[in-house]
Amino acid sequence: MEGGYQDTRWEGYVDWRNKPALRGKHGGMLAASFALVVEGLENLAYLANASNLVLYLSKYMHLSPSKSANNVTNFMGTAFLLALLGGFLSDAFFTTYHIYLISALIEFLGLIILTIQSRTPSLKPPTCDPSTTPSMPCQEIDGGKAAMLFIGLYLVALGVGGIKGSLPTHGAEQFDENTPQGRKQRSTFFNYFVFCLSFGALIAVTFVVWVEDNKGWEWGFAISTIAILVSIPIFFFGSSFYRNKIPSGSPLTTICKVLVAAMLNGCMSRNSSNAIANLSASPFYEPETNKEPEENAKQTDEIPTQSLKFLNRAVVNKPAHPALECTVNQVEGVKIVLKILPIFACTIVLNCCLAQLSTFSVEQAASMDTKLGSLKIPPASLPVFPVVFIMILAPVYDHLIIPFARRVTNTEMGITHLQRIGIGLFLSIISMAVAALVEIKRKRVATDSGLLDSTAPLPITFFWIALQYLFLGSADLFTLAGLLEFFFTEAPASMRSLATSLSWASLAMGYYLSSVIVSIVNNVTGNSGHSPWLSGYTINRYHLDRFYWLMCVLSALNFLHYLFWAMRYKYRSAGAGASK
């Protein structure tokens, strides 16, 4: 009887009441579907404000275009960087289930603060119109009003980070990775995770942005607040179906312990009875990610592999200190983390390009003719083009492209994670080149029309900007879904949430790098006796075309850097290169 009970349990997993998770009752696509719905609502709440925030800060908080752009990139960068905190807490101390609920409540609180401020005139700077009184600049938000604004924004950022760091992993952990069907379902989950993320974005950049521009920002914030509030009970309704991975302690502690042990043991004199590092690699070593916890425990007597063999010094019979005793699994896990870091680094420049979708591209569109017949389209709704394309491409990719690729390559995956990421990086090069060409055309129209110093709309349709959005959106689909699945499948089981959070951390680094590049470009170009590229009374005086060419060159160099690492990477997860 007891043996039968053991066979029905998911080892290393519990249900929401902290009882053993059972096969057939917990996990599966039904459980993961709750995470998909919740992600749509959460991304609606987040992106509805982030996509239009640059205009809110400049129009209502009276910040300059450059300050507004930098504040938006810093806010979005912080939100995604905090995903590392959410992933770390999910792996170390709490389950992904609890981290999501806590983070959603924090985001809800931040949105309430922003809603109150947006509907209360006394909590905002005085209204003004620079076109009627050009000699008197508008008063920027400051003091307690600025404190309220940024407290609300960064509470939202903290909540978003926790959700991004826990929700993808929570959904992916519902599948049995030891079976081909489970791995295929997990791949489908990541594709539809991006689909649902885009669906939430579609509503955000159309309906909610229209509400913000025509009915008031207090209504836009209110819709976001309701969306995140509704997502909490929906997630909670799936509680009886979830299997939640038991936290296994701090992954950062393990990483630090292995690195310190390797250094200290390497400095000590070692004899043959104390060293394992010089032994040949075991051909039978299997990656930790393909095993359930009880199977992983049996691997501690294995011999470490010879890749990054300097870390093998951490595995000795007599370590420098008892606290630095390491198992082979711990050492191999750290090796995996070090191997995926270069892939992570290569995606930062792409996300620096994506940062332009929320900053300069929105300001470009705002200077153009945004009418579609008798309907005036808000500039912040421009991301609807890549979003719709992603929503079309995601199911096509999962149901047509991948099955075809599997038949052609006779492999379980069809298209590998790294191939998918590489396609996204290549598309980012094209998108920046297109952005530069479109900006050249926009500036030519402004010059020919004598509107360089005017805030009046230019006689050129904003659909030209949609071209760069289309390529960048496609790049985002390939790269984000590929990164999420790559980090989840390749990382050690004890570090999956943290590793998956690297996908969002890459976005954060991209947004921060965008701010740094803007500052460096302005400083360098301003010191040459000319006006800075990204400065001027209006965006028509900016030299955005040169900036986009610079980003195109950086993207091309980054793609070559990526190829160097991707061609040398060897998959460790099951199904990555296996034949069907």
From TrEMBL:
<feature type="transmembrane region" description="Helical">
    <location>
        <begin position="421"/>
        <end position="440"/>
    </location>
</feature>
<feature type="transmembrane region" description="Helical">
    <location>
        <begin position="27"/>
        <end position="48"/>
    </location>
</feature>
<dbReference type="GO" id="GO:0022857">
    <property type="term" value="F:transmembrane transporter activity"/>
</dbReference>
<feature type="transmembrane region" description="Helical">
    <location>
        <begin position="380"/>
        <end position="400"/>
    </location>
</feature>
<feature type="transmembrane region" description="Helical">
    <location>
        <begin position="460"/>
        <end position="486"/>
    </location>
</feature>
<keyword id="KW-0812">Transmembrane</keyword>
<dbReference type="InterPro" id="IPR036259">
    <property type="entry name" value="MFS_trans_sf"/>
</dbReference>
<keyword id="KW-1133">Transmembrane helix</keyword>
<feature type="transmembrane region" description="Helical">
    <location>
        <begin position="340"/>
        <end position="360"/>
    </location>
</feature>
<keyword id="KW-0472">Membrane</keyword>
<feature type="transmembrane region" description="Helical">
    <location>
        <begin position="498"/>
        <end position="521"/>
    </location>
</feature>
<dbReference type="InterPro" id="IPR000109">
    <property type="entry name" value="POT_fam"/>
</dbReference>
<feature type="transmembrane region" description="Helical">
    <location>
        <begin position="68"/>
        <end position="90"/>
    </location>
</feature>
<comment type="similarity">
    <text>Belongs to the major facilitator superfamily. Proton-dependent oligopeptide transporter (POT/PTR) (TC 2.A.17) family.</text>
</comment>
<protein>
    <submittedName>
        <fullName>Protein NRT1/PTR FAMILY 4.6</fullName>
    </submittedName>
</protein>
<feature type="transmembrane region" description="Helical">
    <location>
        <begin position="217"/>
        <end position="238"/>
    </location>
</feature>
<dbReference type="Pfam" id="PF00854">
    <property type="entry name" value="PTR2"/>
</dbReference>
<feature type="transmembrane region" description="Helical">
    <location>
        <begin position="146"/>
        <end position="167"/>
    </location>
</feature>
<feature type="transmembrane region" description="Helical">
    <location>
        <begin position="547"/>
        <end position="565"/>
    </location>
</feature>
<feature type="transmembrane region" description="Helical">
    <location>
        <begin position="188"/>
        <end position="211"/>
    </location>
</feature>
<dbReference type="GO" id="GO:0016020">
    <property type="term" value="C:membrane"/>
</dbReference>
<feature type="transmembrane region" description="Helical">
    <location>
        <begin position="97"/>
        <end position="116"/>
    </location>
</feature>
